[in-house]
Records
---
Amino acid sequence: MYVEVEMHVRPGTSGPNGSFTIDGWTAVTWSRPADSAKENECWSKDHEVRAHEVSTADSEGNTAPGFELLPTLLDEEGRPEPTLQRIHVGHPKLRLRAGDDSTLYLMAKVNRWYDEAWVIAVDMKNKRLRGVAKFGGAPRCTSFISAYSQSRISQHLNNMQGD
């Protein structure tokens, strides 16, 4: 699988130190059969989600766990704007656990120089925010330079708890 994430920059918002205002983002997951013998065999688009399409609540109206951790972002006139629409995202990671290929994890920051960051989990298939967690490594990752690596170690930790 492959993930493509594009942030949409609001025109005319370039600021000091390369800052800019985000006007949404798009995430797309792609796949192709693992046994593809031909290098040029086509990739197929699995899911495409735009920030404004992501629901922050489930079908019963319950807000995604941790959503309150995200800051309220204001427009130029001080009015609140949808947080997921304005937040910078990067470092897309797919869930590695078998059977769930639709959860995408993204690092989220108010802007790329911000000292705080969160990891948001997006259900790509249902276009729903699954949860938000504070990312403790934010102070050491200026901008969106590499911040973490994915691993399958968690699937082994559950097996060891009973030992």
---
Amino acid sequence: MKVATSMPVGAATTGGSRHGPQMLNDLNPSSALPLARRLLSLFFLQASLFASGLLQVAGIITIRAWVAASTIACISAQLLRQAAWYLWDGAHGRRLRKKIEFEFFVLILGGGGYDLCLVLFWPGWGILGVAALVYAAWCAS
């Protein structure tokens, strides 16, 4: 519905289009509020859907990253174990083990340690133990 207005002669008319400042004058404040509410609810709905989708994508990425990291960790541990075995079993490893063993026995047996080891690990202790058990059994009967 067009309302007749008095305009000066020669003034340009927009031809009834509702764009620009004239549109703001035609908005009824009582009808703008429900429109704003609908727009906001639509915006919040889209935002929540986007956030939930983003959360699902983040969960999938996290799970895949964890699987990749655990696979890399397992492969690295296996390769490290193989490398350590090759180093331990190689010629240099054997020489190093012999040197460490020699240093250990010099540390333990040096300065009278040989006599202590001989007393502790003397094979005759087994024979004396069996003899003591036989004597105890003979005395008990």
